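Note on ligand handling. Small-molecule inputs were canonicalized before submission; formal charges were left as drawn, and no protonation-state enumeration was performed. Where a ligand contained multiple stereocentres, the stereochemistry in the source SMILES was retained. For zinc ion, this procedure yielded the string shown in the input block below.
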Amino acid sequence: MKIIKKILLAGLVLIVIFIIYLLFNTLNFKSTQLKYEPVAAFKIKSTSVENFSKAIKIKTVSPENEIDFDSLQFQNFEKFLIETYPLVDSILEKKTFNSFSFLYKWTGSDLSLKPIILMAHLDVVPVIEENISDWKHNPFGGEIINDTIWGRGTIDDKVGVIGLMESVELLLKTDFKPARTIYLSFGHDEEIGGVNGAKAIAQYLKNEKVEAEFVLDEGGSIVQHMIPDIEKDVALIGVAEKGFISLELSVKMEGGHSSMPEKETAIDVLSNAIVKLKQNPFPAIISPPIDGFIENLGPEMPFVNKLVFANKSLFESVITGIYEKSGSGNALVRTTTAPTIFNSGVKDNVIPQFASTTINFRIIPGETIASVTQRVKDLIHDDRIMIKKGDFISEPSNVSSTSSFGYKTLQRTISEIYPDVLVAPYLVVGGTDSRHLNEISDNIYRFSAIKLNKGNIKSFHGLNEKLPVSDFENSIRFYYQIIKNSATN
Ligand SMILES: [Zn+2]
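Structure output:
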C-alpha cells in the first residue's frame, strides 16, 4: 500500500511541476508589440482620389491568352502616369522594361546607404465576361459610391501603384530629399508570372550590382476579425512566400470496349495515384514565418490559447491540428496538394487509352521543388505513370528577418499610421513579383496598408472588388511615412 501511495504522490508532484512549468512559460509570454506616437493624418486632396479612379478606368488587364493583350491600355497607363505625376516624371530617373514595366530611381544624397525598393504592379486580372452582370458597379468604372471606390485593381494592386506615385509626388512638392536611394518598381505582368516585368527589372538591378536594404511589395495586409480570438486589427507582414509547382501525371494503357474492362484502366491508375497523394499529405510543420506569427500574436490571445502557444514545443501537434481544420489554415502549415485538372475519356462505352491529371503544390519554406517531386514519385510508386513538371515553377522564397532595419521600419510606420493595430510576420500563400528579387535583398517584405476582412477578401481576383477611400488615403500616408522613416537616417 505504501508503495502505491508513494507512486501516486510522486505522480501528483510531477503533474504539479508540469502545470507550474506551463504557467511559468505562459506568464513569461509577453507582448512583443511596440508602441509609437501616431503621426497626424494629413489631409488628402480630392484630386488624389480622382487620380485613383482614373487609374482604375484604364484596363491594364493581363489576359489568359497572350493574343488578347491590349498594349494600348498599357500605353495609356504610362501617359496617365506622366501627365498626373510631373515631378516624379521629371526628377526621378525612369527606365522601361519590355515596353510597359518601369523602374524609377530617386537618387539619395548618401550613397553609403543601401537603397530600398518599393514595388507594385500595373496589371490586373481579367473580369470574366459572364460575370459582369454580377458586378454591382462597372468593374472598370472607378466609381466612388458612399466613400468606397469600385473596380478591378482597387485592392490588387493599383492602390500600391497610385499610393506610391501620390506619396512621392507629394514629397517632391515639399522639396523632400532622401538620403537613401529609393527605387519604385512597377511590373506589368505580375498576374501571369512577372517574367517580362519584375524579373527583367531584377536582372537589371543585379547587373547594376544593386543590393537593397529592403524590398517592399504587396502580399500582406491589415486583417480584421480573421484570426480567431483576436479582436484587434492585425497587420500581417509577409516575410516569406510559398513556392509553386504543378506536376502533370499521365498514363497510357490499352483501351477497349467497356463491356469487357481489364482489371485496371488508365482512369483507375491515375485515380489511385491521387488517392495516395491525398491520403498522405505533406507533413504539417511550424515554419519560421508561422513561428514568428505565434510569438507575436500568442501573447495577445485569451489565456488558454496563450498557454498553448507559450508552450509550442510541447503542443506543436495541437497547434498544427488547429490550423489544419480550415483550408486557409492548412495552407500555412504544409505544402498543399491540389488536383486541379483531370482529363480522360470521350465516350461512355469506350475505355480510354489515355488519362492525365495536373496536381498543384504550394511549397512551404524548408521544402524544395526537388523534394516535393521526389516525395510524389515515392508515394505514387508506379512506373506506368509519367510525371512532368509544369512550365511555371517557383521555389519557396527565403525567410526575411524580423529584426532587420526594414522590418522594424515597417513595424514603426504601420503603428504610426494605424496606432491600434497589432503587427506580426506571416507566410504569404500566393505569389508576388517580389520573389524575383531574392538575389537583390535578404530583406523582402510583403505588405499593403489596406484592410481585409470576410466582406472583401474574396473580391480581389473575384467579383465586386472595391476599397474604402479611407484605405486609399492611408496607403498614401503609409508610403509617405515609410519613405521618410527609411530614407532620412
Ligand atoms: Zn497583386
